[in-house]
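Module 6 notes. Inverse folding takes a fixed backbone as the condition and produces residue identities as the prediction. Think of it as a translation problem where the source language is geometry and the target language is the twenty amino acids. Below is one complete input and output pair. Work through it position by position during the lab.
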């Protein structure tokens, strides 16, 4: 079975999900976004990213814990990521070539300190004396943001757009402490 969702550019990604560890059991190919994989597979223990980059989630509709996957093999991702549940949804990240620009804000609704990024930042506190951010505006590029410095902890994907309140997006008091660009060389 294949999901031929319509990616937003001509560089399509492809990921194959397998029911069992080490690429065994029934498989399903996906070439775009899939908000609920349950109709294709009851479980998923391994996957192979043939091309492109994807965010995978342990809940339907791109919710729950998330993990970034670039080209490669993930024979036992549950142990690798420390997850106790299966991948339930995935989102393809469109390839981007160009400048990167994002503004982060200390508080909801673009309040408090503001800093503009055009490159990776491994520690907001060290660089700007900022205790993390609660809202952001991505003007250019695709970004990963992490809850801890040095690209550790839980991560989230941010594409172009305004994100006024991480709290209202269901992330509670999540404060992001590091961020990095998703580069075209990762594809």
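Target side of the pair, the amino acids:
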């Amino acid at each position: 079975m294949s999901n031929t969702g319509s990616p937003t550019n001509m560089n399509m990604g492809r990921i194959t999900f397998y029911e069992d560890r080490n690429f065994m059991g029934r498989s399903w190919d996906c070439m775009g976004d899939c908000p609920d994989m349950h109709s294709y597979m009851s479980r998923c223990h391994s996957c192979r990213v043939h091309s492109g980059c994807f965010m995978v989630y342990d809940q339907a509709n791109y919710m729950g814990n998330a993990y970034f996957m670039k080209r490669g093999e993930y024979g036992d991702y549950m142990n690798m990521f420390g997850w106790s549940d299966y991948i339930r949804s995935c989102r393809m990240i469109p390839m981007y070539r160009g400048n990167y620009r994002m503004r982060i804000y200390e508080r909801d609704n673009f309040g408090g300190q503001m800093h503009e990024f055009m490159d990776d930042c491994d520690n907001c506190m060290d660089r700007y004396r900022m205790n993390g951010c609660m809202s952001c505006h991505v003007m250019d590029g695709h970004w990963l943001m992490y809850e801890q410095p040095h690209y550790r902890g839980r991560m989230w994907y941010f594409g172009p757009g305004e994100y006024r309140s991480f709290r209202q997006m269901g992330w509670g008091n999540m404060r992001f402490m590091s961020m990095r660009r998703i580069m075209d060389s990762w594809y």
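Reference fact for the lab report: DSSP finds three helices and 15 strands in the chain.
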